[in-house]
Amino acid sequence: APKSPDEREESQSDELKIEEISKDFSELSTQLTGIALDLEEEIRQNSEDNLELSPQGSRRDSVLSGKEEEDITMEAWRMHQKHIFVLSEAGKPIYSRYGCEEALSTTMGVMMALVSFVEAGKNAIRSIHADGYKVVFLRKSPLVLVAVAQTRQSEQEIAQELLYVYYQIVSLLTLTQLNRIFQQKQNYDLRRLLAGSERITDNLV
């Protein structure tokens, strides 16, 4: 049946919102390849300022995760064909395939904002294609998993890899424990409970 004027207006409004989201994610992809440098520089400066008080401060996250974090200021970081991010529904960084989660906290916050924006319209965001990137989302409450890829993999294949990462986390903590943790404290730093397991997760993708 033909759409009523109100339905057509709502459809056009939804299309405009999707265009806005695509534009926002184009800006996000720029963050992944450039803007993060400014954030990393700020973090490095803060670490240098606090060096006398905490000699290990600049390496806190590396020690916490049990792995050597890749410097996101390096061209090699920006050239990776696939990035995997895990964050909480509060936008708190949990895992990043490359680089320091703290340095990428702003980027992860943008990702969560996009997810929340779409869900506010009673929709679910699954993927965005922008500037040669495939961006795939997997919402598994209380976690959100995101892949930003420039590979030939299909959206379904990338989503399956995100599912593997999710199951890896659940196998370590159980879904019941995850839910309880974030019910008690939405901005809980889950990395503390996952410390030492990052290399296993890295190998899944």
UniProtKB/TrEMBL annotation:
Biological-process GO terms, alphabetical: protein secretion; protein targeting to vacuole; vesicle-mediated transport
Annotated ranges, domain FUZ/MON1/HPS1 first Longin: 82-204
Pfam families (alphabetical): Fuz_longin_1
Gene Ontology CC annotations of this record: Mon1-Ccz1 complex
InterPro entries: FUZ/MON1/HPS1_longin_1, Mon1
Location of the region described as Disordered in the Swiss-Prot/TrEMBL record: 46-66
Function: Plays an important role in membrane trafficking through the secretory apparatus.
Family that this chain belongs to: Belongs to the MON1/SAND family.
UniProt name for this protein: Vacuolar fusion protein MON1 homolog
Species of provenance: Micrurus lemniscatus lemniscatus
Lineage: Eukaryota, Metazoa, Chordata, Craniata, Vertebrata
